Amino acid sequence: NTPTMSNPNAKVNIGTNSNPNTSQEGPSTGDGGDFGFFDSSQQLDEIERLDVAATDESMRKTPSWAALPQPSSKHGLNESMQSIPETSPDEQTRAKVTNLHLMAKEVGSLLDVMKDVIAMQRARRLDVLKQPNWMRRNWYITALGVPAFLFLCIRLSENGYGIQFIKFTASQIITFFKEHINEPVVAIFDELVKGSENISDRETRNIVVENLQLMIRSWLDENYPSMNEQERDFRAKSMDMSLIETKKAESLKTFYEINNVIRMSFIEAQFLKKEMMNALVALDDMQASNNMNMNLAAVTPAVFLIYACQRMLRFVRYALLKLGKSKEETYGSFQHGLLEMERLLVMRDNSSSYQTPMLRHDSVAGAGPAQQTRGGLRHDGIVLRSDDLGMMMLHIHELRTILWRDRRRFSSNDIRSVAEDLAELAGERGTLM
């Protein structure tokens, strides 16, 4: 077995009977090998060559950021016997760091590889505990929903019923949207910004009233000249038609007052026109006062429908499909965890070791540094046992999981405050008794 560059650790039989032409004498070892004195320079040169080859192989396997000490050359037996190293063999074969930055980089890469390997092992071991997929967890929904959906699709695809159903549904949705969402919302916006719209023309009504007053006043001046002027002004401004109706009834008895009858008929027509304009103004006032209420009443069905759809979607998402938790369920889980933690602390509390704030202050002031803790004195009756402490850490982990998994349910101040309190309870900021 001759050592080579590829096998520097091969055994070398020195002074054995492996060479038949060389005879050596020496004590027998019992395993077929005889050891004797080697005084041949050829064998010394072979030993030196093998030593240098092994050293070169070790240096070749040394990392690039380290180096081994250079071996001393051997020229003969006497020189090798005389050269006594001052250092130990371990120090001679110990590598020296020549590039600290390169070593740190290589160690970092090795740590990254170890981290990836550990993550792969953790994932492989936790894969057994992974929950089943959504199809297996909600098999009843799949078993009922898929056949019903396929049957509905088949029925709608026959004789063009599907296209008709889609068109009818779309038209109904559009109509409902216009009547209960679009038009009422636009009307409310216009009323708030522009004001209510009027059906009647108020200026025309004022003109009609003035003309009627003038017609009554001129008729009174011609037919009742002896009447007091103040009374005629009063009847004209109040648009009193009593005298005109009485006079018309008397004038219809004779044919000679037909002109006066026609004139009184025009006055009555003007009066009816005035009443119609007043009715339109009243309708405008009533519409202006009730327009907001009517628009809100028109929007109410849409609001109820949207609320019902939202509740139904929440039920389908959280109850049937199990896609997360609602806000109420999240708060309930967090409150339950807090109650369990409080229950554990209250049950393990020793009431006999309780001290008032004044006594606790005196005890802390008189206690030594070894007996003082961050929260007060250390009482053996209040310290949690190992199993209780483990349960406490499980509750803390549960609360932290809820807090960070559903952090959109909490405000930033709540998250910061609760995280600080949990860190205090977990002892991450010092001993807390």
TrEMBL record:
Main subcellular location of this protein, as a coarse class: mitochondrion
Keyword match Cell wall biogenesis/degradation: no
Sorted UniProt keywords: Membrane, Mitochondrion, Transmembrane, Transmembrane helix
Highest taxon listed in the record's lineage: Eukaryota
Transmembrane parts of this sequence: none
Ranges where the record places region Disordered: 1-40, 56-92
Compositional bias ranges of the Polar residues kind: 1-27, 70-86
GO CC terms: mitochondrial outer membrane
Coiled-coil region(s): none
Membrane topology field: Multi-pass membrane protein
Subcellular location: Mitochondrion membrane
Pfam families membership: NCA2 (PF08637)
Name under which the protein is recorded: Uncharacterized protein
